[in-house]
Amino acid sequence: DSFDLVITNGICVTAGDIAPYDIAIKDEKIVLLAPSGSLADANATRIIDAERGYVTPGGVDCHVHLQEPAMFGKGTSSDTYETGTRSAIAGGCTTIVGFAPQQKTEPSLLAALAATHLRARGNSYCDYGLHLLVGNPSPQALSELAALRDTEGVTSLKIYMTYAALQLRDDQILSVLLAARGHRILTMIHAENGDVLTWLTSQLEAASLFAPKYHATSRPPILEAEATNRAIALSSLIANTPILLVHVSDPGATLRIRAAQTAGQPIFAETCPQYLFLTRDDMDGPGFEGAKCVCSPPPRDKESQEAIWTGLRNGTFTILSSDHCPFDYDDGESGKKTCITEDFPVGRFKEIPNGIPGIETRLPMVFSSSSEGRLSLTKFVEVTSTNPAKLYGLYPKKGSLIAGVSDADVVIWYPEGKDRKGLDMTITNGMLHHATDYTPFEGRKVGNWPRWTVLRGRVVWDRDGGGVVGEKGYGEFVKRGITSYMLEFS
Ligand code: DUC
Ligand code: ZN
Ligand code: ZN
Ligand code: ZN
Q1: What keywords were assigned to this record (predicted)?
Q2: Is the distance from the beta carbon of residue 325 to the nearest atom of ligand 1 less than 6 Å?
Q3: Segment (H or E) for 410
Q4: Which among 62, 66, 72 is the best mutation to test ligand 1's pocket, defined by most ligand atoms within 8 Å of the CB?
Q5: Rounded Cα distance, 488 and 37, in Å
Q6: Would strands 410-413 and 54-57 be described as parallel, antiparallel, or unpaired?
Q7: Mean per-residue pLDDT over the chain, rounded
Q8: Does the C-beta of 354 come closer than 6 Å to ligand 1?
Q9: Which residue out of 354, 356, 359, 436 has the highest number of ligand 1 atoms within 8 Å of its CB and is therefore the one to mutate?
Q10: How far is it, in rounded angstroms, from Cα 283 to Cα 290?
Q11: 215: Cβ below 6 Å to ligand 1?
């Protein structure tokens, strides 16, 4: 038999175990797992010697904003589908799920989806799915859920409890949850109390407090905990409809989520690298640099970081996504994070687009933490690949290394130990492949990086042999099924 690609001499890590075996790939699929070294001389078009480096399933990042029209009123995405997905594969991520945003003035979800397909199609380096971002839960929109699921392969929605342009009232949230439940569609919720943070923002502005660091003051942790609690309460009213709380940053919110899970409610939660690696002090940088770390919810304090790590370890958080939501710091007119004007010489936190880039740094930063004992390697794979694939109906095509079943999406890391070529690197924006003019993680050390990224059997990233060697357009739209987790709650 001849294979397209063999990966020999690697130490494979899945959510279930760590073991040395060889992987054979044919026609875009993993077709065989065999004892380590046994395929070293196999008949294959290409053989990669992993040199005892770890081999993991390709990363699955299900919270990525690319090329969305200005939804929050300010800022233009600094990455397109092309540049964002190029950045993804260079960081070991082989599948993303982006957002198709429906504006408040737009009655149809299907129309919003079609508009996003036009931006993404033919432009992606990695495989991708789409969530519907519901800005207007009109009767028409909610009547389209069946078609979304059965025809379009879209099985999840995102709704907001904040942002004037998107914020839903509680009764609207209930309508969305009820409709979603009927079709076993998963609802993602951005839980911050929008009315209160708008009021706090006016208070700060009235006191002439405009600097980036006041972004954190305007969004204290209790706003997130309150809205998280409310979202959980609303989901319980609809016979415990499963929900996913996105980008959780606050220990109080985390405790509430854990309590609901302990009580048997189907509550899922996501966190992001910014809540593990940044604090609010990073928004107090020199000059206006603090704007580079402005995202919502804002990074919190050191103790909160510890609580979020604990929540990852103990399973409160099902997934870890990047929430890549990029805006240039200072490039061109639109989308700038610097909003310094004559009237506002220290800028104006209220005008800073909320969101940071991180699609490429997510896996290396969190993987490196495992060598510091923060997260086991199996847990790393679970929260960055396997669980996102299960949660969003991509499993077992994505998120694992199952012979005969899984797509051949694989990341090969550098061998650990002496002569660790490529290890102990310092992140700089210059080495990244997005189009954004900064990274909030500039200067941070990482202990490893994807050496090769393989997408459906093709090497698309070869760090020592050309860098990005994949092509735009090779990435395919993936129709998703019903969340694996919801099958338990039918
Ligand atoms: N929410 C997100 O999910 N991404 C960036 C901005 C925001 O508030
Ligand atoms: Zn194909
Ligand atoms: Zn959000
Ligand atoms: Zn987001």
Answers
A1: Phosphoprotein
A2: yes
A3: strand 410-413
A4: 72
A5: 40
A6: antiparallel
A7: 95
A8: yes
A9: 354
A10: 4
A11: no
Only one residue has tokens 């799915």, namely 129
Q: Tokens 């109906």, residue?
A: 393
Nearest atom in ligand 1 to the alpha carbon of residue 323 is 4
Q: Are strands 93-101 and 127-133 parallel, antiparallel or unpaired?
A: parallel
**ipTM of the complex in this document:** 0.90
Q: Is the CB of 166 under 6 A from ligand 1?
A: no
* SS percent in the chain: helix, strand, coil, step 5: 30, 20, 45
Name, in order, each residue with C-beta under 8 angstroms of 202's C-beta and a sequence gap of 6 or more: none
Tokens standing for residue 93: 């991520």
- Tens-place pLDDT, residues 199-220: 999 999 999 999 999 999 999 9
Which atom in ligand 1 lies closest to the alpha carbon of residue 65?
4
For residue 219, the ligand closest to its alpha carbon is 1
**Considering only CA atoms, which of 392, 92, 114 is closest in space to residue 246?**
392
Tokens matching residue 163: 């942002």
- Tokens 């966190």 sit at which residue? 271
Query: Facing residues of 270 across strands?
Result: 319
Q: What is the pLDDT of residues 329-385, one digit of tens each?
A: 997 766 688 888 888 887 899 999 999 999 999 999 999 998 888 999 999 999 999
Q: Please determine, for residue 392, whether its predicted confidence score (pLDDT) is greater than 80.
A: yes
pLDDT band at 419 (very low <50, low <70, confident <90, very high): low
